[in-house]
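Re: beginner question about structure tokens

> Can someone show what the tokenized structure looks like for a real chain? I only ever see the sequence side.

Sure, here's an example I had lying around. Input first:
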Amino acid sequence: MSTSGVGDGFPDILAPVTLRLDLHDDATAQVSSVVFDFEDVDGTQGVVVGRPDLSGVPDAGTFPRRGEALTLMWSRPSGQMQLRVVATAGRRSYGAVWVLTPMGAAVREQRRQYFRIPVTLPAMLAPAVDAADEKNDAQNDEPDEGAAVRATVVEISEGGAMICCDTGLPEVGSFVEVSFTLNDKPVTTTAEVLRHKSLPSGRPSAAVRFLDPAAYGDDIRRYAFDVQRARARSGLS
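And the corresponding structure tokens:
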């Protein structure tokens, strides 16, 4: 096992990492993995990660795509690191892997870190509609009343949420309208589905990113602080 060149430019051995895959129509999907090793790839240090679980990713069988770039992401105390790489599927003695060849140097992502809290908020989930869809709906005498489904927000932050839906999760890379209530204030916001994840209970969930986190950021932050304060007073936190 080689560890040469490990530093801010590469994640550590056994570090958890995220792979951001490019889908169609500028959509993306994020899947989790872990670093197993470093290998020389034609004179360049490559990162060997475990083959990620692509459940819920559209066209999952086509990944990794030959010659197509994806983004490797990992955390450092100084911030979130990103590295554009090309992936090749392979197998080692410890199992199936992707070998990631860097296309350049790692960069530090300048991104605000959001405070997340576990919650149980009833919600409604519906496919996001664009202007053309809204116009067609307005001209349609029989709108689709079954598009929205009941869901539960189980984790929330200013930047996104984790959502469970017993009728099935929206596809990774799709856009949805999420509606819920915070302290008697209705919230409806558009979000991108980043990945699917099984909760410790085994219940499937979808991680979503709010496209406009500033729209309800203050409301979510106040709600999060209220919940934390209430839990602290009741001895639950």
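Each token stands for a local structural state, so reading them left to right follows the chain. The longest helix spans residues 217-234.
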